[in-house]
Specification:
Structural class of chain B: alpha/beta
Strand content of chain B: 25-35%
Largest interface: A-B, 34 and 52 residues
Number of helices of chain B: 9
Strand order of the largest sheet of chain B: 6-7-8-3-9-10
Number of strands of chain A: 2
Distance between the termini of chain A: 37 Å
Radius of gyration of chain B: 18 Å
Largest sheet of chain A: 2 strands, antiparallel
Oligomer: heterodimer
Chain lengths: 322, 249
């Protein structure tokens, strides 16, 4: 436990100091934190043994809510835009979740993908509303009523994002230790027994799905503000796949994992794009293969010295339905 | 109000051409210990599955504490006070024994606050006492996956007991337990059940266990009760001795 706190504290200090020492990294780090938030949402679902290949839906939805509101006269304030857009993505998760939590495994993953791709198509085709493939520009809003220059705005947005990411990570860590969080793990372990405890596994998964959608939505809202532009690509399957990639790269053993993964993802993408612009996707692929084969518990597991939990030595037959 | 805590009436269930339940009926009074015996494939586990909502009968009914529970889900039936353990223990193998019990406790108490740590549940002591009562206190912090089958069986039952059920079904509670430990295990279980005034129905193949711990015995054959009576009556019945126990008269 002490080692986990140490990793979190070291990561936090590095993140606090880095933008001051290297101002050029502010936007890259903010983007990494946003993707880390979405991957944290993936981590929550992975605890139940479910993978979503469609979290781009929530990421893009809140980003577009920000874009529409920022363009309107009534929503030109960060402190208003972020909570409203996040809540909007939570609402979408609440609606989609009603349907999705009935399914498990590959069906769960692919239904998420299907719904996100429907949204992607709508964003692309409804040109007059969404701007189509060109997307929408997000005018820079005020921050606590102040109109800031781009660099100053980005600088403060980074620290706001960092504070939100730390709060979200601590909240998720707490949730995972709570009875609800343990019941979520129980879905992966033995859903039959969960039902025979009188617990609705669908309700447990629904709560987790809602939380997961909110986290992805928070990331999407901030990325829209920082990048100043939203496109349908935010809902595209590649983006959703990146969140899963980041979660696996970082490791799902602790809440710092997705953020470690997101930072590493940004570093690899940045360097590979410069030094191997034609093959940077291959570099990412090789990196993932290395992680899967040599550090299956991800970067977090590698640093924390944890082995993956899902390969127990069974001393008795595996559970089957009665 | 009926004198019976559980009344299963004329349960029928067909899997293709096989009648797994063929008019199965059983009435159970509070605090009884009923042993269900019979050859493999007689429909004993099917009967438990029908009474606990895992399977739905094509006809017949299950009434528990005056309420028809035939069409209810396992979850709803559990909430009404029927617990069960399984032939193959159904546990959260990645978690510790204590986490398994505390999750059952949270389900019973409805304590789902995200601010409460499961391992700091205010009624944790109650679960330690429960583990003590089934002789497994030392295993509390061990992951279930590391424990042998016999211990898992007991933990499976302890998890069901943590829900404080009025009635518990136990499917072969002593299978996987070494023959010299069977009586020890059953003594422990009987004490735990007595302390909670829990009615119990258990499937059992060991006739010594049946003779010692059952107040009534139901002999299952062809998806229904073929014979019913006290352990003395049943275990000395010539047909039972020949077909179930395997001892010719």
């Amino acid at each position: 436990m002490a080692r986990q706190y140490l990793i979190g504290a070291a990561l936090l200090i590095a993140l606090i100091v880095f933008p001051v020492v290297s101002p050029w990294s502010t936007v890259i780090l903010t983007v990494a934190l946003c993707e880390g938030l979405a991957a944290l949402g993936i981590l929550v679902l992975l605890r139940a043994g479910q993978v979503s290949f469609g979290h781009g839906l929530f990421f893009a939805f809140s980003a577009y809510v920000v874009a529409f509101m920022a363009a309107a006269s009534f929503g030109h304030e960060v402190l208003l835009l972020v909570p409203i857009a996040t809540a909007a993505s939570g609402l979408v998760a609440a609606l989609v979740g009603l349907f999705i939590v009935r399914y498990r495994a590959i069906f769960f993953g692919m239904l998420n993908l299907a719904i996100s791709m429907v949204f992607f198509s709508l964003l692309e085709k409804l040109f007059s509303v969404t701007g189509g493939a060109d997307g929408k520009r997000v005018p820079r809003p005020t921050l606590a009523g102040m109109t800031l220059e781009r660099e100053t705005f980005e600088f403060w947005m980074f620290y706001i994002t960092l504070a939100l990411a730390v709060t979200a990570a601590l909240g998720v860590a707490r949730y995972l230790l709570s009875p609800g969080g343990k019941a979520l793990e129980a879905i992966k372990s033995n859903e039959t027994r969960l039902e025979y405890l009188g617990v609705s596994s669908r309700k447990v998964l629904y709560g987790a799905y809602l939380l997961s959608g909110l986290l992805a939505g928070l990331g999407g809202a901030i990325i829209a503000l920082v990048s100043g532009h939203v496109t349908p690509e935010l809902a595209y399957w590649v983006r959703s796949g990146e969140f899963v990639f980041i979660a696996i790269l970082g490791g799902v053993g602790g809440v710092a994992g997705p953020f470690l993964g997101a930072l590493m993802f940004q570093i690899i993408r940045g360097y590979a794009a410069v030094h191997a612009p034609e093959t940077w996707h291959a570099v990412l692929g090789v990196m993932l293969l290395v992680i899967i084969f040599f550090a299956p518990s991800g970067l977090y597991g590698l640093i924390a010295g944890r082995k993956r939990k899902s390969a127990p030595k069974e001393t008795a037959p595996k559970e089957t339905a009665p | 109000m009926s004198e019976f805590i559980l009344e299963a009436r004329d349960l029928e269930l067909r899997f293709g051409g096989v009648l797994a339940a063929n008019g199965a009926s059983l009435s159970v009074r509070a605090n009884e210990r009923i042993a269900i015996i019979g050859p493999n494939g007689a429909g004993k586990t099917t009967f438990i599955n029908l009474c606990t909502g895992y399977l739905k009968p094509q006809s017949g009914s299950v009434v528990f504490a005056g309420q028809d529970v035939t069409a209810l889900s396992p979850r709803a039936i559990t909430r009404r006070g029927i617990g069960r353990s399984f032939q193959i223990p159904q546990l959260f193998t990645d978690n510790t024994v204590m986490e398994n019990l505390l999750l059952a406790l949270s389900a019973r108490e409805g304590t789902w606050s995200p601010f409460l740590r499961l391992d700091r549940h205010p009624k944790r002591e109650e679960m330690i006492a429960l583990l003590d009562s089934v002789g497994l206190r030392d295993t509390a912090e061990r992951p279930v996956r590391e424990l042998p089958e016999g211990m898992r069986k007991l933990i499976d039952i302890a998890v069901a007991l943590a829900l404080d059920p009025k009635l518990i079904f136990m499917d072969e509670p002593t299978s996987g337990v070494s023959s010299h430990e069977k009586f020890q295990v059953m003594d422990t279980l009987a004490r735990a059940l007595d302390a909670r005034a829990t009615t119990a129905i258990f499937v059992e193949h060991d006739m010594d266990v049946v003779a010692r711990y059952a107040s009534r015995v139901a002999v299952w054959s062809g998806g229904r009760i073929a014979l019913e009576g006290t352990p003395d009556e049943i275990l000395n019945h010539p047909e039972v001795r020949e077909t179930v126990i395997g001892v010719g008269v």
